[in-house]
Amino acid sequence: MSVLVSLRGLVLSAAVTCLLSAAAFGAEPAQKPALSNADCIKCHAGPVADIESNGGAHKTSVTCQDCHTGHPPAVRKVIPECSSCHSGKPHYNLSACMRCHNNPHTPKIIKLSNNITEECLGCHNQQIVKLKQVKSKHSSLACSFCHNVHGKIPQCTQCHKPHSADMTATDCKRCHQAHMPTVVTYPSDTPNKMCAACHTKPAAVLAASDAKHKVVACVTCHRDKHKMVPTCQSCHGSPHPAGMLARFNKCGDCHNTAHNLNHWDPAQKKSETPAAPAKKSKKK
């Protein structure tokens, strides 16, 4: 009797095993739950808020799942490479995108460290040409030394003292270009006080003069470019007879300097006056 019961148990167990196996092979596998973009905010509220406020094209042209194709543990590598979307320009071939684009969810809020130059040149190539052609202290600085936030144009007075107390940062750009600062050029309406900030002595002498040059703007004579010294003839032509000019071939021989016309130092004038010939003594 006991043998019969054991036999029945074995048959029943085998039947159950067969049914379970059949179900396992024939049944459809359970579907994985699908994630939607609306699910991301449930855990990742910060990135979603960043994209909403400053996402740029990352807000308008792509969704979370366009970049993050999957979720752990099913997908391990969920942070994409920038180059998976951005290509076709020299700028996109640069490595270390995160040196400038610190947060991919706010891609156009760019903060730069103090040693960045190469990354800037992909778009701003004319500036480096000027810096290399005209060497100055600015040529040895990294771009981000001055432009530590993308798009920021710093005030010159951030590093440099103005030439005079009444000069503002806006005045600096009338004469100086940031990428070639030693090439000093200026417009025709530059006031004399800007020149006088450095050229104090000529400005004081001219202001005290009673000649017509007193009312002429500095840039009328010193046109367009710093240190340009004109000839008197460029304005006055040759007003004197050839015989006089042959004897006195420099205007300053008679007129002194352009800032102090016709005013000679009395000591200098006395020293230049020929001494009277000595009288010969009569022989006894």
Provide an overview of this structure.
39% of the residues lie in helices and 1% in strands. The protein has helices at residues 2-26, 37-40, 45-54, 57-60, 64-67, 118-121, 125-133, 143-146, 169-175, 192-196, 200-208, 218-221, 233-236, 242-247, 252-255, 266-272, and strands at residues 256-257, 260-261. A hairpin with a 2-residue loop joins strand 1 (256-257) and strand 2. The longest helix has 25 residues, at 2-26.
Low-confidence stretches: 1-5
What gross morphology would you assign? Answer: rod-shaped
* Count of individual beta strands: 2
How many helices? The count is 16
Category from helices, strands and their pairing: mainly alpha
In which order are the strands of the major sheet placed? 1-2
Rounded to an integer in angstroms, the radius of gyration calculated over CA atoms is 42 Å
Estimate the strand proportion: under 5%
- What's the order of the H and E elements? HHHHHHHHHHHHHHHEEH
Mean pLDDT: 84
| Helix fraction by DSSP (H/I, runs of at least 4) | 25-40%
Describe the biggest sheet? 2 strands, antiparallel
